[in-house]
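Could you please consider the sequence and fold appended to this message?
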Amino acid sequence: MRAAVKTVRQSVSLPAGVAVQVRHLAKARKLSANRMLVELIEYGMEAEKRKQQEFFDLAERFRNATDPEEVKRLGDQMGRMVFGA
């Protein structure tokens, strides 16, 4: 028997433009705006976890690199990930 998924009611204020986009996405996918928000949040959390894992993988490659050119390239790549560019 599966355990029921507990839900928590949460109130969020969205900028008007974002709310319109959420409603349009929900309508296009035949979902409620609430369900669309849940999916978008889940996708965002997965993307953040992937981004973090990519950074840790890159940091590991940077630590293990011995070629000065490779070290510079990986260092530049890490800098772009951290500070943007």
